[in-house]
Amino acid sequence: MSAREKAKAQIEQVSGKVVRKAAWAVGRKRLAAKGAALEARGKARRLKERGKDVLR
After folding, report:
1. Residues 38, 15, 8, 44: is their CA dihedral positive or negative?
2. Looking only at Cα atoms, what is the longest distance across the chain?
3. In which band, very low, low, confident or very high, does the pLDDT at 2 lie, cut at 50, 70 and 90?
4. Which of 14, 17, 18, 29 has the fewest CB atoms within 10 Å distance of its CB?
5. H-type helices in the chain, by residue range?
6. How far apart, in whole angstroms, are the C-alpha atoms of residue 33 and residue 26?
7. Which residues of 10-28 are buried (b: 16+ CB within 10 A; e: fewer)?
8. What CA–CA distance (Å, rounded) separates 48 from 56?
9. Could you give the CA distance from residue 39 to residue 32 in angstroms, rounded to a whole number?
10. What is the pLDDT, as a whole number, of residue 13?
11. How many Cα atoms sit within 13 Å of 3 on the Cβ side?
């Protein structure tokens, strides 16, 4: 897993979690859903890179 992709996945996960929790606290459900989607995209990126490492 390249360090760049690993960092990008981690940033997406953390920023998605922050957006999701902040939006949920304020009551903006649509923004909370977008934050959850960003977090899920980061997790998917991490799993993709981990799978590529296993196959090498």
Report:
1. negative
2. 45
3. confident
4. 29
5. 3-26, 29-55
6. 13
7. eebbeebeebbeebeeeee
8. 13
9. 11
10. 95
11. 0
Q: Is 6 exposed, middle or buried (0-12, 13-18, 19+ CB in 10 A)?
A: middle
Q: Token pair of 42, please? A: 């980061």
The model's pTM is: 0.83
C-alpha 56/C-alpha 47 separation (Å) is: 15
Q: Using one digit for the tens of pLDDT, what is the confidence trace for 33-55?
A: 999 999 999 999 999 988 888 88
Q: Over the stretch 7-34, which tens digit does the pLDDT of each residue have? A: 999 999 999 999 999 999 999 999 999 9
Q: How far apart are CA 30 and CA 36, in angstroms?
A: 10
